[in-house]
Design goal:
It is a single chain. This protein has about 475 residues and is an alpha/beta fold. About 30% of the residues lie in helices and about 25% in strands. The chain contains 12 helices and 27 strands. The two termini are about 35 Å apart. The mean pLDDT is about 90.
Length: about 475
């Protein structure tokens, strides 16, 4: 077993981990840090998922890093472009040289006596273990299980004689041309797959148990394109980013305050795209807008595929798989050569690693988040978790900036440890993502940290609020303690 040391240790070299690392390199050029990454490439989610058409579901001007502008005009970028953007950012700041690939983090234990973390990692290629120690641990692992996606217990699924694929394990170079494809699901993955596969498949059917809200966005930001013709690119980027952040906040807040009006607006947009004869029941959810994430499609590509006849949507439940397809509760049978189970994710906290303090394992569902960046009673641990109601990276940028402020504060006061302490028993039964009713969210209630009654123990999911509390409010707020 080898042992290594870093002052700051970051877990994950995806969008979040690279963002945090670049911020640290900019602000503390002489401070050492390391990144442990299970995969052999940079990118995290965007290296893992390789299904047809994979793209962001947030606009890239707010999804990209604040410190390194997204320089293309694509609004919803494809996975390869995002992967290249993250890797290029890591190379530009030199943080790619700090990444140790092929290491799966299994456990992390804080020692109050030594005032450091001991992290145990498995080098999966060889089966050997490595130990890392650090003063500060930063987890940037996202919130779902990279090993497996969610697959419901479909009756008769083993009898199906065609090809069955989960998007999370898409086969390399799989050819669906000329085949009858059924995509099970109605979320962001499904609405991406259907138009991407419809161009060459014999036919693609989106089979959904219940509809989602789907809206169209322009694939190219034409306002930004015009502004770039006569204004400096840096200024245009800041203007576009501010505009898009404001639009996200307005849409979310309006949906919460006037759900009926926003629902009518969203459904009217679909009607314009699919035509007056289309059955709108397929795009009329039973829930209010933003009870689950909205699905964005560039230039209405899903609706174009439906109108062309190369794709269709069926709203029904599965009675059983058959050797040649799927029989529905209505009695209808869908013939399929390929079934794609876009049925969601399995969630986990901290990449599945076991966290302990002085040898005592901490159940993360029993602790609250502090300012949605740290965890109650766990010293020197930053938990980087993005927004679910806006671009993920907006919160990553704020969390990284707060981490810089915290480290500087520790340097200033001559202390080495910071720990959030809840002296008011604030914990509730609410989870940090309970505001969304999506199935994959509800399945994970038992593994995600809790919410407290009031801030700072409550995750607010509001960019304007978080900018103030993370970038301006005092680090020493009477809740965060700094043991001597």
């Amino acid at each position: 077993m080898t042992t290594n040391r870093a002052t700051v240790l970051i877990i994950g070299a995806g969008l979040s981990g690279i963002g945090v690392a670049c911020r640290l390199r900019r602000e503390f050029p002489d401070r050492d840090f390391a990144i442990l990454e299970r995969r052999e490439a940079i990118g995290g989610t965007w290296d893992l998922f390789r299904y047809p058409g994979i793209r962001s579901d947030s606009d890239m001007f707010s999804f990209g890093y604040e410190f390194r502008p997204w320089d293309e005009l694509k609004v919803l970028a494809d996975g390869a472009s995002i992967r290249e953007y993250v890797a290029a950012t890591a190379a530009e700041y030199g943080v790619d040289r700090a990444i140790h690939h092929g290491l799966k983090v299994l456990a992390a234990d804080w020692s109050s006596e030594r005032r450091e973390w001991t992290v145990t990692a498995l080098r999966e290629a060889t089966g050997e273990s490595e130990t890392w120690t650090c003063s500060f641990l930063v987890t940037c692992t996202g919130y779902y299980d990279h090993d497996r996606g969610h697959l419901p217990d479909f009756p008769g699924i083993e009898s199906f004689e065609g090809v069955r694929i989960h998007p999370q394990q898409w086969p390399e170079d799989f050819d669906h041309a000329g085949r009858k494809v059924v995509v099970i699901g109605s979320g962001a993955t499904a609405v991406t797959l259907v138009p991407a596969m419809a161009g060459t498949a014999e036919h693609v059917t989106m089979l959904q148990r219940s509809p989602s809200y789907v809206f169209s966005l322009p694939s190219i930001d034409r306002i930004t394109a015009v502004q770039r013709a006569f204004l400096p690119h840096g200024l245009v980027h800041r203007m576009t980013r501010a505009r898009n952040i404001r639009m996200q906040r307005v849409l979310f807040r309006t949906a919460r305050r006037f759900p009926g009006a926003v629902r009518r607006l969203l459904l009217a947009g679909v009607r314009r795209r699919v035509g007056k004869d289309f059955d709108m029941a397929h795009f009329s959810p039973r829930y209010d807008p933003w009870d689950e994430r909205l699905c964005a499609v560039p230039d209405g590509d899903l609706f174009t595929a439906l109108r062309s006849g190369r794709a269709s949507v069926v709203t029904d439940t599965i009675e059983t798989f058959t050797p040649t397809g799927i029989r529905l509760a209505s009695g209808r049978e869908l013939a399929a050569d390929v079934v794609v189970t876009a049925t969601g994710l399995e969630l986990q906290a901290l990449g599945g690693a076991r966290i302990s303090v002085d040898g005592e394992v901490r159940d993360l569902h029993e602790v609250c988040t502090y300012k949605s960046v740290m965890l109650e009673g766990i010293p020197n641990l930053a938990w980087v978790f993005g927004y679910t109601n806006a671009s993920w990276t907006l919160k990553v940028d704020l969390a990284a900036a707060y981490l810089v402020r915290l480290l500087r504060h520790l340097d200033t006061i001559g202390r080495t440890v910071a720990v959030p302490v809840d002296r008011g028993a604030n914990a509730t039964g609410d989870g940090v993502v309970d505001s969304l009713s999506s199935g994959y969210i509800q399945r994970a209630k038992h593994v995600m940290p809790r919410q407290g009654r009031d801030f700072p123990w409550r995750m607010v999911m509001d960019y304007k609020h978080d900018r103030k509390v993370l970038l301006s409010d005092p680090v020493d707020d009477g809740v965060l303690e700094f043991p001597a």
